[in-house]
């Protein structure tokens, strides 16, 4: 058996690199993608902040729509009817702290530590690097080896939380089938909430952590045929993780904005029936 | 049939160099490497370029074409406009030798530092049994042609030379993943090694390695992230930890971690004989003038002296040892 | 005096392909200090190009397979010109060599019960090729490379130095071997990178340098294949056999240049592809030999019906045996009805809908799309015979792989005899492993016996002068690229797949002229990574090997396996008993006849008498 070999000599001592004065010789529009991502994620963050501070228009009582940003609503300050089976375990909050801020930590953390979003914001916000073969412009670089970025490893915890969040959003989507006059009913909001729930699940279950837990960590697939199949399914979702990340990001904004508009009575919900 | 195209090729060596302009004929269906060869045959017979199979299978002709790391033999001229200038430079991350040829020894050094496949004990050649589904993941990584484009593009070392000693690079993360997922590899500490020795934590998964891979290996999604997750399994995950406690089994591997087996503390305590006088450290060999010999040339033996003294013979007689081997546990263990 | 780096090794292995690496592993395992010399980077050797697999009678897929069957197939493939003992050892030992690779970490494709999967291949009676998709060669070289690294790690643990007992000299070319008192004493070469000279003092040298394809205009071989090992062996006084046998594939791409030489699989023709000349004529109908007349269609209509209804129609003439197709293409091109690049058109685009082509020939479609942006669904391909493998090589002892000079060993494509007149697909990878191991083992034993040797200073100085000569002439000399081009032209046109007496004689004259000009080759620039200089030094190797091929091809007045004479189209049992042996007489190649070793009776008993009768003369039977 071999032992871990020590380093022979400094790897960098071999000589200078080619003296090319241009920082990058890329001729394509390599800056376009990071720019778009910057704008997209920036817009989401701004919207999220505004909505979280707003602290109203999140419950459309007649239609039984709960805005995803405020779901579940866990504090005593939640408007009547907006809290569901989880109750209101958290006491009255100071007025500057909305119920959204409490709950957004979970999906926010999940996305913040997500392997796809990490790529996206390291590139477009931190410029590390902005694009392939374009210098990252930082003096030193230690990656995710130390504080604070070593905390990216808690993605696993957020994944478990995200399963709860996904379940609650599913519950919300089911509640939205509540008819205006009691019984079963369906409006455009019902559809939007349902689509949103599906996309959130597709994003959550396609997560790299999930892929590892469900089967990726196994050494012998052949001994665990069921988990191997599950791993295969998750791998398919995982291959589209980037697309689902964006789709669910937009769907959650759309769903939230729609509920807000209905709740604030800026628009009336389009009802398919009841 | 051919058209004249404008090429800029970096020429020079470790003392410096610059982009030189060439007008060169390009025919239909040619790749960049063909054009470089035409330059060699017609204008610059000593233009240095590394190449071999010319079919995208050996990974020799790595270069940067219009700033992007590519294989010269896999970059077709038809991907450029007729009027476009094509700029060809050597790989930036490695020391240049001459023109388009760089010194890629960094990679060969890193390859040596990664423990090789550890064959399972007691399985004779010809008795290896593996299922196709179990070898498929590792097979993907074994497609690697070692063009080192991923190593070149990775900003961890491309932009930060100082990280080279601590960071092995994507090529060797897929090698680590390949071995960790190998159904019969006998080592179980590859995740720890990837984190501690290879610098897995330096990777911030910006996926440039995957983007440039000519073999289309999903380096980030299938190797680096799973390795990161496997480290998380061992070190950070609460549920796995709980599951292991409750079910007393480990689905991850068949054995617990033992990167470097340490004797149990209690056994070591009771088993050591600290009163024993250890061997006296030897003094370093000195020259006639009573000073340390600096030059290896004048020393009577190759390489540096032994830290234990050159006249110390191993193994030491057991009675001189301060350490006593613990006897195997009896009864109920712990 | 020029600065020369000196090294002393027990065993020096020249060539870092499959055979070289396997030999080095064996020599190191025998405890010998071993050097591996590689012309390119470590792990880039031409072995990576092998796609099909490695033939070994493991019997994993069909349990009826065993070494006797494999031996029989090999002998048949080589038209009984093989060195029977090599074929026997190869068939017997191949399975162990493959299994050994698994302990080094190789991951072959698996069968259902977890064993190594084996696939069918032309000429093999049972599924026999261990494979990994279509990149078996890469798997092989990577595995051996990683085994060497693992041995280096063991040495590091023991000695604190990775290179204590096995070292790879990358991008280093050997230009001269030294022989003193009839035995090898060292090797001399230069680092491509710096142009610095390096000398290896050693009593045992293993040649594993591969083939000679770069002497041909259209070849599937890489630039390394300049016949270095063949030429080095000749110059030390060793001998080559069977140099007239080269494996050509009738349809290799000739244009565009980016895919020149790459094979176009026969299934393109099997799926409906037809060959046309530049006049648009489907010419194969004119080339059906009388013996095949009955089995092949006479009209285009009938031929086209065969694809959908093979039972009631005769086969299209595009599916004639390889040499017939090659001969036809050759004749068309020589008659001026070929394309400018020297090929004919292989048209599948107008025969099948694009979607069908993509479905039936996915790898072909992608290969051309990716490498050359050629859409085979839209335009015909330009194809011609491409040089693929040389059966001939250094004459070696079957068991020890020792060449005629003491201390010189050879394995892999550079050695001759194993494959006879034609090699079966898949046998080259197993050949590398079987004889690579034997070469390493016996080289180590030889080094053990002899100890270390040292070449004389005068010989080294002469080698330096030879190496520096082209640089001294600089621009005043002949351009190496031009000379190389002319050599390829001569070999491609005159000593190609179909050979004729007159053309071969012409080639010998022209090669002699070229030899004089190669002596005057000159290159500008310095020694540091100067490809012009490298080519200039390789040229003389290519030239002497080409001369062997041309002379042997002229001498052998029959057609057999990889040697087709238009003026002697039949196989002649009398020639089966003869190996043509090349050696160097001053600067010229000397050719001698040598009887083939006679197969042992129990091996002969593996064949039916009627089959042997096809190959052997009456008195042999």
Describe the structure.
The complex is a heterotrimer of chains A (274), B (334) and C (621). Chain A has helices at residues 32-54, 99-112, 115-124, 155-175, 188-205, 208-216, 225-239, 241-263, and strands at residues 59-60, 65-66, 186-187, 271-273. Chain A is mainly alpha-helical and 274 residues long. In chain A, the strands form two sheets. A two-stranded antiparallel ribbon of chain A has the order 1-2. In chain A, strand 1 and strand 2 form a beta hairpin. Chain A starts with 31 loop residues before the first helix and ends with a strand. Chain B folds into three domains: 3-102, Ubiquitin-like (UB roll) (Roll); 105-239, Fumarate Reductase Iron-sulfur Protein, Chain B, domain 2 (Orthogonal Bundle), CATH 1.10.1060.10; 263-274 and 284-325, no CATH class. Chain B has helices at residues 32-42, 105-113, 132-142, 149-153, 155-158, 170-181, 190-196, 208-212, 219-235, 238-247, 265-271; strands at residues 3-13, 16-26, 62-65, 68-71, 86-89, 96-98, 101-102. In chain B, the strands form two sheets. Chain B has a five-stranded mixed β-sheet with strand order 2-1-5-3-4. Chain B has a two-stranded antiparallel ribbon with strand order 6-7. Mean pLDDT of chain B is 81; it is low at 250-274, 276-282 and 295-299. With 621 residues, chain C is an alpha/beta fold. Chain C has three domains: 4-245 and 391-458, FAD/NAD(P)-binding domain (3-Layer(bba) Sandwich); 247-387, Succinate dehydrogenase/fumarate reductase flavoprotein, catalytic domain (Flavocytochrome C3, Chain A, domain 1), CATH 3.90.700; 466-585, Methane Monooxygenase Hydroxylase, Chain G, domain 1, CATH 1.20.58.100. Helix content of chain C is 38%, strand content 17%. Chain C has 18 helices and 23 strands. Chain C starts with a strand and ends in a 6-residue tail after the last helix. The interface between A and B is large, with 65 and 82 residues.
